[in-house]
Amino acid sequence: MKVINKIKLKNYKRFPEFEVEFSEEVNLIIGDNEAGKSSLLTAIELVISGSKSKVESIGLENLFNKQAINDFFASGKKIESLPTLHIELFLNEQNNPNLNGKVNSDNNNISCDGLQLICEPNTDELTHEIAEVLAQDDNNFPFEYYLVKFVTFAGEAYTGYRKFLKYLALDSSQINNEYATKEYIKTVYENFVEQTDRIKLRNEYRQQKVTFRDTKLKDINDQLPEYQFAIRSSSKSNLETDLNIVENEVPIENKGKGRQCFIKTDFALKQHDENQSLDVLLLEEPENHLSHTNMKKLVNKIAESQAKQIFVATHNSLISTRLNLRNSVLLNSNSTAAMVMRDLPEDTAKFFMKAPDNNILEFILSKKVILVEGDAEYILLDALYTKETGSTIEADDIHVISVGGTSFKRYLDIAKILEIKVAVIRDNDGDGQVNCVDGYSDYQADNMNVFYDADDGNSTFEICLYNLNQVACDDLWLADRRTLPVLGFMLKNKADCAFKLLEDKADELITPDYIKQAFTWINE
After folding, report:
1. At residue 298, does pLDDT exceed 80?
2. In 230-325, where do the E strands start and end?
3. Residue 113 forms beta bridges with which residues?
4. SS3 assignment, position 429
5. Strands 100-101 and 339-340
């Protein structure tokens, strides 16, 4: 079994330095926009592919870390200070001497298996030319004078014709791109059919074209002495370029975007399971264009797959939770370090796999979070926050999530690992010491705090709110109460009453002290 154990990056895209270990099965690359999810998948693909043309099509100017280049110019533009770009994939033991060696950056003097992409200046042959470029007044970086090298940890060069791992990359954002579709089909075919068979089939296909020309077009060409019809047989018109994938005889490019996403991903997974012809599957945002129903089907197929190693870049909560949060690699646009969730308690991971969708990614990608117990608190919290602080939840970069009282500790398990600052606002349920202090004894940390009303008689948010705002609440509902008192009505209709208070009495509401304390603490 071929597995990527670890990746290391240097001066690549937004990562000056980066290192993370992977699971041998599913790896969820989770992050907000511009966090580097796509960059990480691209890095893996570039190294496995061994293709200089892929590097050239992206462009070194788009692969190099911008800060590394700026630092070079600021340091005096010396040739010996030119930065290098380095991507390393550390593999499990392959029993292949061509892969095993000490040519890597771990510096532990221990042989291991791996592949790497190195982009470095060609100072052996082009020192003079590089010096001329650097002597110019403007900041002209000599990208054109860089070498692109693919080298194993044994120090052996390799190319796209000598792949050590078979892979397939699928980017759902490019699902309607004709070139991307052709490349996908070509890659699938190359992984499915051995090279010797491909050569034989290509030859037979070309001969069939010749036969067609000599038989079916002969009568027509006999009437055209000067110019004649022929069949294209160049490298751009061969078997691989003419192949297609169909479903019920309908080509996939004629399907809707959502169906194309589903077919391509499903087809790739089936290759993994039935033919074991792929070692690595790279999925870029497979949720694109899919309905919620098809999303669930696709997630189930990924979860049930016997695939070897799958990398999924996503910002979809359903995919993240259903495929086990413990398999997550978390990236944040405000940091270049990765966080992993392997230490998340297994029962918490299973909880999120089965629980209703609770915006788990919103929580994971946040710096500050207020967790509330129900819809009523969620509806009113924005207005109460603005009234007390003069600011807004959004302006202060705080996320408010309604999780239900039984789920608080599940989120705090995640906060422990990711060091997210979390204020829990909850009911004391008639015994604050037991329910809000003793019950959270395992969650004592600087980045998490539980806030509740100190009076056990104020057992719920609605009771607290009514006792502080009796005049406003009676004004809204007392005249219509024939059976239930106002407080009883509020307890029976929590969300509706909260919404009515927000609409008609937001400026008059008095905020409970424990909620004020939460607002102060979250901003400290």
Report:
1. no
2. 246-247, 250-251, 280-284, 309-314
3. 91, 100
4. coil
5. unpaired
Helix (H, G, I), strand (E, B) or coil at 427: coil
Cα(140)–Cα(447) distance, integer angstroms: 46
Query: Which has the closest alpha carbon to 188: 286, 303, 278?
Result: 278
Asked if 27 and 327 count as a contact pair (C-beta separation under 8 A), the reply is: yes
Q: How far is CA 369 from CA 110, 178, 384, 435, in A?
A: 44, 43, 16, 21
Q: 418-458, pLDDT tens digit by residue? A: 889 999 999 999 999 999 999 999 999 999 999 999 999 99
8 Å CB contact between 422 and 448? yes
Q: Name the β-bridge partners of 471.
A: none
Q: What is the DSSP secondary-structure string of 411-422?
A: HHHHHHHHT-EE
Percentage above 70 pLDDT, the chain = 93
Question: Whose CA is closest to 373, among 348, 398, 399, 408?
Answer: 408
CA dihedral 153, 159, 165, 167 (to 10 degrees): 140
User: Per-residue pLDDT for 268 more than 60?
Assistant: yes
Residue 88 has pLDDT above 80, yes or no: yes
**Could you tell me which residues are beta bridge partners of residue 449?**
423
Contact between 315 and 30 (Cβ < 8 Å): yes
Which tokens belong to 342?
Answer: 């392997």
Q: What is the CA radius of gyration of the chain?
A: 30
Phi and psi angles of residue 145, each rounded to the nearest 5 degrees, phi first: -105, 20
Secondary structure of residue 332 in the 3-state scheme:
coil
Paired residues of 445 in beta bridges:
448
Q: What's the angle, vertex CA 60, arms to CA 59 and CA 61, rounded to 5? A: 90
Q: How far apart are CA 313 and CA 58, in angstroms?
A: 19
Average pLDDT, the chain: 87
Which residue type is seen at 15? Answer: F
Q: What digits encode the pLDDT tens for the residues 364-400?
A: 888 899 999 989 999 999 999 999 999 999 999 999 9
- 330/520 Cα distance (integer angstroms): 28
Sign of CA dihedral 398, 36, 414, 448: negative
Does the pTM surpass 0.85? The reply is no
Number of neighbours of residue 308 by Cβ within 10 angstroms: 18
* Distance, CA of 330 to CA of 332 (rounded, Å): 7
Helix (H, G, I), strand (E, B) or coil at 228: coil
Angle at 193 between CA 190 and CA 194, to 5 degrees: 95
What does the alpha-carbon distance between residue 110 and residue 116 come to, in Å, rounded to a whole number? Answer: 17
Interhelix angle 494-505/470-477, rounded to 10 degrees, is 100
Rounded to whole angstroms, the Cα distance separating 484 from 121 reads 81
The residues pairing with 150 across neighbouring beta strands, listed in sequence order, are 117
Token look-up 């693919």 returns 150
Tell me, what amino acid is at 54? K
- Say how many Å lie between the first and final Cα of the chain, rounded: 50
Distance CA 437, CA 444 (A): 10
Other CB atoms within 10 Å distance of the CB of residue 272: 21
